[in-house]
UniProtKB/TrEMBL annotation:
Marked site positions, Interaction with DNA substrate: 262
Site (Transition state stabilizer): 160
Protein name in UniProt: Exodeoxyribonuclease-3
GO BP of this protein: DNA repair
Domain Endonuclease/exonuclease/phosphatase: 7-262
GO molecular function, one term: metal ion binding
Cofactor(s) listed: Mg(2+); Mn(2+)
UniProt keyword Manganese present: yes
Location of the active site: 113, 158 (proton donor/acceptor), 262 (proton acceptor)
Length: 271
């Protein structure tokens, strides 16, 4: 069977509910993972999301900030969340697909929203950057202790780091900009490799191809300037590498009315 999984930092699911519906109608993924839903659990537009054809929805949210959700055509056997850095700030949720998912049964999907880190890349001067580094250190520890890739697994999300040279529009100009500083890029790559995750995008579309999933609101003509960064990722456990068929960024969404500054990333597996 073919399984399609998308990840998208939606930057408010209530504000952009129509865009979620449009994307689901046009791309029809089996599973959509959202970040920055920006609403508490009781304010999630659950019935609307289910009406798009995704009856199975889990959400961990809070008022005004963060929030992660998973929408699925298939039911879940298990769901769980981790409170990273001792904070209840809705940055992680996990599901394992049930036997009704057929060949995808037992597949675990981890949805993360890594802190952005503020503007100053110095943990002594910027608590937000310290939090980001601590968060990634905890992800690294989790990967080492919990062995999330021991079985079939996918890790997705807005990881807020563009790790490779061609994941940004200008490697040299962004070396001291949060999201592409050496301490961040090295930490993300180390935690990925140590836990045996593979970067699905760069398996099928290796460097030096430039690939972005985020374009700043500050750029008035984002498409022409194309000063993007690849902040949104899909990683696979190594056992799934041979199932990888396609991966892409739905760049068009960035040009929709009142868009998110992120575009969805979608992977296709043949299980």
């Amino acid at each position: 069977m073919q399984l399609t999984v998308s990840t998208w930092n939606i930057n408010s699911v209530r504000l952009r509910l129509d865009q979620v519906g449009r994307f689901l109608k046009e791309r029809r993924p089996d599973i959509l993972c959202l970040q920055e839903t920006k609403c508490p659990n009781d304010k999630l537009p659950l019935k609307d999301l289910q009406a798009f054809g995704y009856p199975f929805v889990v959400h961990m949210g809070q008022k005004g900030y963060n929030g992660v959700a998973i929408l699925s055509r298939y039911p879940f056997a298990e769901t769980s969340v981790m409170e990273m850095c001792g904070r209840q700030d809705a940055r992680h949720i996990t599901v394992t697909l049930s036997r009704e998912a057929k060949a995808a049964a037992g597949l675990t999907i981890h949805n993360f929203y890594v802190p952005a880190g503020g503007d100053i890349p110095d943990p002594d001067l910027n608590e937000k950057f310290r939090h980001k580094l601590d968060f990634m250190a905890e992800m690294r520890s989790w990967g080492s202790k919990s062995k999330p890739t021991a079985g079939p697994a996918i890790l997705v999300g807005d990881l807020n780091v563009a790790p490779l040279e061609h994941d940004v529009w200008s490697h040299k100009q962004l070396l001291d900009v949060v999201s592409h500083t050496p301490v961040e890029t090295e930490m993300l790559e180390e935690l990925r490799q140590e836990a045996d995750w593979i970067d699905a995008m760069r398996v099928l579309r290796p460097e030096p191809e430039k690939i972005y999933s985020w374009w700043s609101y500050r750029s008035p003509d984002w498409a022409a300037a194309d000063k993007g960064r690849r902040l949104d990722h899909i990683w696979l456990s190594k056992g799934l590498k041979d199932t990888l068929r396609a991966i892409d960024v739905t760049r068009d969404t960035r040009g929709w009315e009142r868009p998110s500054d992120h575009a969805p990333v979608t992977v296709v597996l043949e299980l």
